[in-house]
Amino acid sequence: MKHWLARCAVAALMGLAAINASADAGALRAKYTELREPLRNNPYHRPIVIDSAEQGDTLKGDIYAVLNHPYDALAKSLQEPADWCAILILPFNTKYCHPVKGDKGTTLAMRIGRKADQPVTDAYRIDFALRQVAAGADYLESRLAAAQGPVGTRDYRIAIEAIPLDAKRTFMHLSYSYAYGGMGRFAMQAYLSTAGANKVGFSVAGKDGNGEPIYIGGVRGAIERNVMRYYLAVDAHLASLTAPPDEQLDKRIQTWFDSTERYARQLHEMDRAQYVAMKKGEYERQQALLQ
Hints:
Layout: H1 2-40, E1 48-55, E2 58-67, H2 71-78, H3 81-88, E3 94-102, E4 105-112, E5 124-135, E6 140-148, E7 153-164, E8 170-180, H4 182-192, E9 204-207, E10 213-215, H5 218-240, H6 248-261, H7 264-267, H8 272-290
Helix pairs in contact: 3-5, 5-6, 6-8
């Protein structure tokens, strides 16, 4: 009797999960229909829509994008913790990423630091719990969550959901958010008044006297830059999968850098040679630490 009840409970939960996934797939498909025109016509020269919000002590950035990669390639990658790390290490300030399996699931042990070469031990540690919410033939959702981050930040969330559009294209929604307290707010204000003073995001807040766009700045500009970097990392990773295995790392690195340079006003940090050398060095260091 107990075993029968347990089987019934599992079946009920599986049925509920299938219903929820179907509803989520429908909602994402409706979002694609809603955004079809801005995906076709925008200033980014690729099919994306960017949004950001600041609510209380939480910042959130969202990107909706049509990927010119098959849905199955994305679904397979997001089920592999190592592929997640291959994506997350591409931005300048990620210094280390390694999947760790434990009793409660898989964690991505990451180190976040300066946008330049830096020892792993000097970088901030942040541990993301990886959760696969859905992985079906017509909808996927994968989430990362970290309770604590660097300099008084907390409640980090990175989530990807996607649906297939056809055999070669995928519609993806990527969201990135975190919260901050007094220390985090102070650190952000210090950054925005120094190194980040002239940095901008992607949303247009208005136009100047010459009719040129005025891009949003401040904390919303910062979150938009970050979510764009992660989107470009996903795209670069998928592009690299078509190369032979021994060429994939170089292709990921080169593709990500090329993509960010298309938005140099927002994303440029260093020249190609410096970035490529830094990332290859970090990858080699990471492999050595795992031996």
